[in-house]
Amino acid sequence: xxxxxxxxxxxxxxxxxxxxxxxxxxxxxxxxxxxxxxxxxxxxxxxxxxxxxxxxxxxxxxxxxxxxxxxxxxxxxxxxxxxxxxxxxxxxxxxxxxxxxxxxxxxxxxxxxxxxxxxxxxxxxxxxxxxxxxxxxxxxxxxxxxxxxxxxxxxxxxxxxxxxxxxxxxxxxxxxxxxxxxxxxxxxxxxxxxxxxxxxxxxxxxxxxxxxxxxxxxxxxxxxxxxxxxxxxxxxxxxxxxxxxxxxxxxxxxxxxxxxxxxxxxxxxxxxxxxxxxxxxxxxxxxxxxxxxxxxxxxxxxxxxxxxxxxxxxxxxxxxxxxxxxxxxxxxxxxxxxxxxxxxxxxxxxxxxxxxxxxxxxxxxxxxxxxxxxxxxxxxxxxxxxxxxxxxxxxxxxxxxxxxxxxxxxxxxxxxxxxxxxxxxxxxxxxxxxxxxxxxxxxxxxxxxxxxxxxxxxxxxxxxxxxxxxxxxxxxxxxxxxxxxxxxxxxxxxxxxxxxxxxxxxxxxxxxxxxxxxxxxxxxxxxxxxxxxxxxxxxxxxxxxxxxxxxxxxxxxxxxxxxxxxxxxxxxxxxxxxxxxxxxxxxxxxxxxxxxxxxxxxxxxxxxxxxxxxxxxxxxxxxxxxxxxxxxxxxxxxxxxxxxxxxxxxxxxxxxxxxxxxxxxxxxxx
Length: 670
What we know:
- With 670 residues, this protein is α/β, with parallel strands linked by helices.
- The chain is built from 24 helices and 24 strands.
- Strand 11 (303-307), helix 11 and strand 12 form a beta-alpha-beta unit.
- The protein is globular and about 80 Å long.
- Residues 263-299 have low confidence and may be disordered.
């Protein structure tokens, strides 16, 4: 069997859709197949003994490369066996990726332009989407209870591993879309593209479906599920929301642009060193010499344990996309290249995931927070991670109250400059205790890497004796990721990007207000809010808010596609109000040649020289509006700041960052 890393391809991937159908000719089958033929490569269909023209419809589509019809219905007898048969049919076609879709599910049109960017990458092995159950009409979907689409992502697309043994659960009902091996923790991307489920549109069908599912669940489980019972909920308990269409993005996908330009389809991640490639180089034998007869060879590979707060959400179901997380991935790649084994630890409920292939993330059910520290998480980490030789505390306070002898901590910037920080502590005595604990954490490790000079200055003024522990290593930009990109298409509108998480401390409220004002004042400007929120409710509000303005877009991208996104922008706004280091988003925007407007906060002044390679402002709504208006109206200044930003970004290259970190790691861990 080929391992996952060897099957990851940055280009040339084939996407095969698989579908079970029965008596679908008079429903949505043609609509679904018409859509699929525009963005998948092949379609495999298993007909479960249809009695209408469903087979005729299916065979009329050229992309349906495999079609079989059961002589008698299997679904009502054993759904698990039906799904297993379909899976075997798909395997015989040699897919790279498999889309599991039903005959009443339709993706938003955006998928047609963006699907190649989603599958031609080496970062993740599954793609999940929010599924909206339309209820009684084609205009409204259901949101009460377990029907709420904003609280869940459904796995629709999975990378296929040739030679892997896939097995299906022996379930007569609710067997699911995927075999067991595709259901567990996979490196997954949550897409903002939505999927419509039309199976509940016709109210007259609800009772028959309810009775079928209820009878089968009674037979299989002895009781109907809560979800099934909710099908027949009284009208007053059914909550609906109106559907609103998302706008297509105004620039082509990375894949499409590369083909149009005649360039390589290979992604930037593949040229810069992909997670799969890194894991492949780092894997294999420890290479130790054999020991004495009767004794095992000593383990020669050195192991680094990294303690963080949350690379994944505490329940393990949501990847946190942000600069710190990307920093952690690059640091892991460097450690692997240096010959270390790496394992990550964080607060959670006991689950285990992978950061990149071969690098585990283990969760510790200790999520206490005392005076901005996590002593129980720290203690349990040292109790459980007994196999590590060295430790990296990904946030400085995680080294309280103890640290491994050979250890490094990282300061990602001052986080106590937010106005409500004092209130979160609880008074003067609490602030004293916080400072005492922070001092212990800083003193406990051998070396502290600071991403900005603001932290260095604060420590020098507060505890001068600790300054010798600090090493200044600013954040990085992977300039190589831009070298393989084609030139973006010319566009009439000026594009402004807010490439941050949707949090108040990052200035999202100020940026949103500025977008509302400036899209009214200028007809040649559009705004792109590109980043996830910390909760589903805010993402829901952002999607709806953006849908009300033709020139405001909201979406997010995996890290490998962000360079192309920046290249299609003119201005980047980084209006952080607090808790900021040398922002990766700012550096990436600079590397793409965007004119940058940044708040004079934390490490941003290490990156931006006001008036030379960007504008530094106090991040208020009016200041942001004024700075944006200035750049919108002055094309020459926009271009000059963008050129200078691109030049300055060279001082913060990924290569220089790796060199600096290599010296620190070599000094402390050897």
